[in-house]
Amino acid sequence: MNEEVRLTAWVRGRVQGVGFRWFTRANALEIGGLTGFALNLEDGRVQVVAEGPRENCHRLLDWLRSADTPGRVDGVTEIWGTPRGGYAGFAMR
After folding, report:
1. Residues near 34 by Cβ (< 8 Å), separated by ≥ 6?
2. pTM above threshold 0.90
3. Kind of pairing, strands 35-40 and 90-92?
4. Which of 8, 10, 11, 56 sits a CA distance of 20 to 30 A from 43?
5. Residues with Cβ < 8 Å from 25, sequence gap 6 or more?
6. Are 24 and 10 in contact (CB under 8 A)?
7. Are 81 and 4 spatial neighbours (Cβ–Cβ below 8 Å)?
8. Which class for 60: exposed (0-12), middle (13-18), buried (19 or more C-beta within 10 A)?
């Protein structure tokens, strides 16, 4: 069963000013079935919220932790929850 979930991830490292949000959005769209956003935080992290099938959210999380991201990811913290809805697509904020 591929239930609908909400993934919230905080990515730390050199992830601002390197196109990280753009590539995150592109990856989410390529995976498909995901809505949400990527947002630069004042402390230098990027917050990623993705809602959709659990398998697709795991694929995005795997990419966030991979060596294929722009910049340098030092770590990713995630929480899982119930989708809240309200996203028309996947945005950069």
Report:
1. 28, 50, 51, 52, 56, 57, 60, 90
2. yes
3. parallel
4. 56
5. 38, 90, 91, 92
6. no
7. no
8. buried
Instruction: Compute the residue count for the chain.
Output: 93
Token pair, residue 23, equals 């590539």
Q: Summarize pLDDT for 6-40 with one digit per residue, the tens.
A: 999 999 999 999 999 999 999 999 999 999 999 99
Grouping H, G, I as helix, E, B as strand and the rest as coil, residue 2 is coil
Among residues 31, 35, 38, the alpha carbon closest in space to that of 76 is found at 38
Sheet of 35-40, strand order: 72-81, 4-14, 46-53, 35-40, 90-92
Q: Amino acid identity of 65? A: R
What are the catalytic residues? 21, 40
- Burial class, 40, CB count within 10 angstroms (exposed 0-12 / middle 13-18 / buried 19+): middle
Give a three-class secondary structure readout of 42-70: CCCCEEEEEEEEHHHHHHHHHHHCCCCCC
